[in-house]
Amino acid sequence: MTSNPANRPDNAAVDDTTFSLMSSLRFDPDLPSAASIYAKDSYPKPHDSPYYLLRHHQNRLLQAATNFKWAKAVAFLQPPLESFAETLDTFIPDHSKAWRLRIVIDAEGECAVDVHPATAWPLRCMFLPTSFDDLSSLSGSFPWRLVIDSVPTAPSQFTSYKTTSRGHYDAARRRVGISSPTDTVEALLFNLAGEVMEGSITCVYFRRRTHNHHRREEEGSKAEWITPPLSSGGMISVSRQYALDHGFCTEQVIRVDELVDGERCLISNGVRGFMPAILDLGTSR
C-alpha cells in the first residue's frame, strides 16, 4: 500500500482556478510490442495501448480533480478508460508516429492536449529496469546527473498534484544550473524537515537504506530500491505507482543527510520512463 499525501493546512478546496491539472505522457505505436518483449508480466493493462501508463494518468488526474473539488473535471475523468483514450485520439495528428502529450484539464472540465513530436528513445526504458548498468547502456546520454537543490521546498497541494502551477520546480531547476530542457541534469528537491521529496520533473529511487526502525518493513520486502513516501511532499507519479505496484521498490523516508555523493540512483516520469542518474552533492553547495 502506498502512502497518502501529507496532511497540510492547504488541503481544503482551492478557490483560485487560474491553474489547471496536468499530466504528460508518451504516445508510441511501438509501445505494445515493446511491452510484450520487455514486460509481458509486469506492465499495467491495457497492454495494447500506445499511451504509456494511460490508466495511471487518468487516475492521477481524477485524484487531483477530486482533491480540488472540481466537480466538472471529476465528471469528465470518471468515464471508462476507453472513453478517455478516444478523447486523446482526437488530438493525435498521425497515429503511426510517436508523440509527447501534455494533457491539461481546467476547473470546467475542459480538456486540451498539447502534442509535440517525441524524440527517438529506447523503449526498454519505459519498463522496470533489470539493473543500473543495463539501463545505462541504452543511451549515450546516460547516466543523468542528479543535483540537490540549495534550499528546501515547502510541501503543498502543488507538490502533491501535478498542475500548471510549477514555479517552485522552475526555481529549483534554475538554482542547480539547468538552462535547457535538453540538459541531462535533474534537480533533487527536499522539504523543510530535510527529507527528500522528488526531482523537478521526475520521481526518484535510491538503494535501500537500513535503519532499525525500518527493520520490520525490510524483512517483509526484497525490493532493492526505495522511493520517498508521499508524506514527504512529493507528487503522485504514474511511473512511481507502476514501480510500487509491481514490487520494484518500496517507500521509505530518505533524509538529505544520509545521501552519498556519487551514489547510483534512478529517476522516472511518464514521458521517458526510467533513467539512471548519479547523485552530485557538490554542485549547489
UniProtKB/TrEMBL annotation:
It comes from the Eukaryota. Pfam families: Aminotran_4 (PF01063). InterPro entries: Aminotrans_IV (IPR001544), Aminotransferase-like (IPR036038), BCAT-like_C (IPR043132), BCAT-like_N (IPR043131). SUPFAM superfamilies: D-aminoacid aminotransferase-like PLP-dependent enzymes. One of its GO terms (molecular function) is catalytic activity. This is Aminotransferase. It comes from Talaromyces pinophilus (Penicillium pinophilum).
